[in-house]
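User: What would this chain look like folded?
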Amino acid sequence: MKVKTAAVIGAGTMGAAIAAHLANAGIPTLLLDIVLPDQKDRNFLAKQGLDRALKASPAAFMDKDRAKLIRIGNLEDNLKDLANVDWVVEAIIEKLDAKKALWEKLDGLVKPTTIVSSNSSGIPMHLQIEGRSDAFKRQFVGTHFFNPPRYLHLLEVIPTPSTDPDVVKTISEFGDKVLGKGIVNANDVPGFVANRIGVYGMVRTLKHMQDTGISIDEVDALTGPIMGRPKSATMRTADLTGLDVLFHVAGDLQKATPEDEDFTLTPMFLQMIEQKRLGDKTGQGFYKKVKENGKSVILTLDPETMEYVNKGKTRLAELEPIKGQPLPERIKGLTQLPGKYGEFMRKVMMDTFWYAAKMAGNVSNTIVDIDNALKWGFGWEMGPFETMDALGVQNVISYLEKEGRTLPPLLQAMKDSGRTSFYQDGEVVDVKGQPEKYEAPYMILKDLKKDATRVVKSRPGASLVDIGDGVLLLEFHSKMNSLGEDAINMVFTAHKIIEEQGFVGLVMGNQGDNFSAGANLPLILMNAQNGDWDEIDMAIRQFQRATTSLRFSPHPTVVAPFNLTLGGGCEFSLHGDHTQASAETYMGLVEVGVGLLPGGGGTKEMYLRFVDELPANAPLLPALQRAFETIALAKTSTSALEAKKLGYLRDSDGISMNRDRLIQDAKAKVLELARNYVAPTPRQDIPVMGENGYAAIRSALYGMVEGGFASEHDQEVSLAVARVLCGGRTNNRNARVSEQFLLDLERENFLYLCGKRKTQERIAHMLKTGKPLRN
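Assistant: Here's the prediction, encoded as C-alpha cells.
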C-alpha cells in the first residue's frame, strides 16, 4: 500500500482544509460533495469549498499554486473516479446514517489496496461499517484531523477490530512523514483521545469557575501561557471553536459515557446557547469585540448580570512571583496560590489528572499517546502525565485521596509501587503502572543531552551536541534564539572541533519555539547610541565570517530552519551547503524594518542567487530589481514553499513536513554530502551594474517618496541597500567584483545606517512595542 493520490468527500470547512493540506504535501486530490438540485453548477459545493480554502485565514495552503493539485467534482458524476485513488477520506455531516450510506456506495467500488477512512470526531468507527463486506472492513480506518489541519499537529488513527494492520501502518507513516502529523493511536471509543480528555477538562473548568466565583478573564489568565497552554486559554478557545460545538460534543459524550464521567454544562453556559451567544461566529460569547472611540475593544461577559464590561488587561498580582520560571515550577506555583485562585487551579488540575489516569487503557493503550494527543491537539506544552511528574505523582495521589476520590487503577498501581514519576530514565509506565523501555520515534535534543558526553561544548546562548554518526549540531538557546556573541563564536568553535575530533559535518538547528528571530538588537542600539562604531564594525565582521564559514569550510554544513527565521537567522540559512527547512518556516531579511540592511552576507547572497538564475549574457536589471524588492520590502515567506519562490530557499533545498523529524532529516543530508564533499571557493567575478543600476533604483524611490508611499528615511535605507546590490557606484558597465567586496559594502552601509538618528529610533520602537516605526 502506498498513498500517491487521494480523494476527500465533503467540501465543508474541514474537508476542504484536509484537501488543501494533502495538496500542500504534493498529493493530487479529488474533492467531492453532493449535487444541489437548485444549482446549475453540479460541482457548486466542491467549488465553494475550494474557494473557501483559498481565502482561509490562517491560510490553508502553504502556496496557493498547490490548489492546482485539487480537482473538484460531485458524488454523482465522479463517484466512479474513486475506484483508482489510494486514499479516500470522508468529512461529511456528523450523522451515522449518512456515513453508512456513503460506505455502502464505496463497498466494492474502490480497489482492494485503497485505504478508506472517516474524519469523524465522535461517531465510533465500528458502527459506521456495520453491514459492509469483510474486504471493506479490512481497508477501513478512522483518521481524525484537528482543525485547521495545516497547523494542528495531531492526527488520531483509529482502527476497528477488523482493520488490516498494514492499513494502520501505511496511513500512520504517510500521516507522519508526508503530511507532517503527530500520530496518536486511539481506541474506537466515544471522543477518542484528545476530545475525550480535553473536553472533559473544559467542562470541569466551567464548573469550577462557577463554584469558586472567579471571572472569565481570570480563568484565562490562570489557564493560558502561565500554565503551558495556548494564549487563547479556556474561554477564548471556546469562543474561537464555537460554544455550540462544545455543547454538542459534551452532550454526545454525556450520553455515551458512564455516570461518573460528568460532562454536564453549567446553567450559564446553557443560557448562552439559548441566547445564541456562540462565540466569534455570532460576534459574542464569553468575549465581545466592539468599537470605542474608533478603536477595537474586547469586552468580557459578567456572569452575574450577563452584560459585557470593559475590564481592560487582566493582571493577577498573585502570578507575578512565578512568571518567567520554568514550566514545572510554574505548575507547582499555580497549585500553591492563596485563596480562590489556588482552589480553582487545584480542582481543575486534579480533575484532569484523575480523568486522564482513568482513561489510560480505555481511549489509548499508552500514556505517551494521551500526553501527545493533548499537546498536539490542544496546544498544551505538557500532557497530563508529564504534568503529574512535575508535581510529583505521589503528591497528586495524596491530594486526590484527601478529596475522597477512588483512585483509577493506574494511580493505585503507582501508589502501591511508590514510583514518583511516569517517565524516568528511558522508561515509561504502561497503562497498568508497570515500567517499560521507551524510545521516542524522533530525535529529542533535551533527552539526548541527558547523556553529558553528548554535549561537546556549551555556553549560555549556544551549544555543540554530538547527534551521532559523526555529525555535530550547533544549537542556539538564547531568548528568541537571537544571535549574540555566544552563537557567533560557537560557529568557529564548531568548525575547529569538527576538524580536530573527526566529525564529518555540521547541522545548525534547534528545537526551540523559533530557529532565530535575528540579531541582538539591544546590543546594536546600545553601541550605536554610545558611538561605539569599532564595536559594531567588529561584530559585523565576525558575523560575516561566521555565515560565510558555513559555505567555505572543508566539511558540509546543513542549516535546519523552522518557524521564525528572520534577519541573521535567514542569513545563516542562506549560506549553508544545504538548507533542510520545516514546511512551516517564516523566513525573511527584515532588517529594513529597523532602518538597517542585511549585514551578514544576506544582501550579497540574494543578489548572487538571482544573477545566477539569469541566462548567459542576459541584462542584470531583472536580478537587481528582484533582490532589491525582496530586501527593501522585507518580504517574508509564509511557508517553506513560498520561501522557495522568494529565493530564500533553493530548488535543491529540502522541506520536512514534520518538524519533529527536521534534525534527523538535516543529519541525513550531512551524511549524504560528506561522502563526496568538495568545498566551494569564494566568487571573484560577480557582474554588477554600478551607477546605472543605482540611478534606476534612485529614480523609482524618488517617485515613491513624492507620492507619499515612502518616507525620506525609507529612501535613505533603500539607497544603502542599492549601493551594495549595485557593487558601489562605479561607471564601468562591465564591472565584476568579489564576494568580499560586496561584504565590505554591506558592512560599510550597515555602519552608516546605524549612525542615523531615525534608524536608532526605529530600533528602539521595535524593542519597546514589537512593531515597526515609520519615521
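The first strand starts at residue 6 and ends at 9. If you want, I can go into more detail on any region.
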